[in-house]
Amino acid sequence: MDRFRSRCSSAVARMKQSGPVGNAYQVAVDAADQLFPSTSVILRSRFGGSREAELSVLPKFVGCGDLVVDVGAHKGLYSWHLQRLVGPSGSVHAFEPQPDLSDYLKRAFRGSRTVLVHELALSASRGIATLTVPLFDGAPALGHATLEESGGRSIEVQTVPFDSLGLAPRFMKIDVEGHELGVLSGAMETLETSKPFLLLEIDRRSGRDPSKLIELLQHLDYHGYVLNDDGILAPMDVRRLLDPSDPILATRYAYNFFFLPRTSGEIDRRVEAADVPPRPR
């Protein structure tokens, strides 16, 4: 208890010293990370997701009772929102191979019967792979861990193809720092049969070539959309992803993209329903 009070007092002191509200928020979240992950995940998800505009569109693709997947769950931002959408009759499968983050998620969602945390890396095949955690100013950047590069702190992680898990998801969010092709290659049967809605992070500024990823999505008849600054899910020519100098949007660099299957007009209904109020500028 004394240690708890000491940490809380320290956090409050730093909040009083910090000028901008954003700094105070970050201090509070950092303290909650150490003390109560179940509180931290709520703070992050309710007040820290402003940079993830795509969260506002999720209710149009995910509903009560759905089985959904969060690949690269990090600290649970999407898992928290998804569990609220699927309700007690649904399930959220959160995949996070980093032991520290996986442990954090298990503690954060300890009382949840909806969120299931898997300390696994999804990939094209089953085995052991090296996950590299880059170092920024000497500190590990857990949110940028990748199976695609070396240099930094290395962690041996277990990989499995998604198709081996016997899951039929309605929606998949995939943020794996360049390993999107590997994840989807291990989920081909799922993509062809369940045809889940996809939300992929594709950061073209990393220098990774997304051409094979685009070819795979086109082969599966998935069509690309981006949430523009007016809150509209707009169709896009996926060939634009091949040019890293193309920001896609007029006012910001886009890196999150929806890919929807062209099946029986479903895509048109979802896109029409996905218009949301414009974000304040």
Description:
With 281 residues, the protein is of the alpha/beta class. The protein folds into two domains: 1-35; 51-273, Vaccinia Virus protein VP39 (Rossmann fold, 3-Layer(aba) Sandwich). The protein has helices spanning 2-17, 21-35, 37-47, 77-86, 99-108, 180-185, 188-193, 211-219, 266-273, and strands at 67-71, 91-95, 115-118, 121-122, 127-133, 135-136, 139-140, 153-160, 171-174, 197-201, 222-227, 233-235, 256-261. The strands form three sheets. An eight-stranded mixed sheet has the order 3-2-1-9-10-13-11-12. Helix 1 runs antiparallel to helix 2 (21-35). The termini are far apart. Residues 1-21 and 276-281 have low confidence and may be disordered.
Summarize the structure.
With 281 residues, this protein is α/β, with parallel strands linked by helices. The chain has helices spanning 2-17, 21-35, 37-47, 77-86, 99-108, 180-185, 188-193, 211-219, 266-273, and strands spanning 67-71, 91-95, 115-118, 121-122, 127-133, 135-136, 139-140, 153-160, 171-174, 197-201, 222-227, 233-235, 256-261. It has an eight-stranded mixed beta sheet with strand order 3-2-1-9-10-13-11-12. A three-stranded mixed beta sheet has the order 4-8-5, with no helix packed on it. The protein has a two-stranded antiparallel sheet with strand order 6-7.
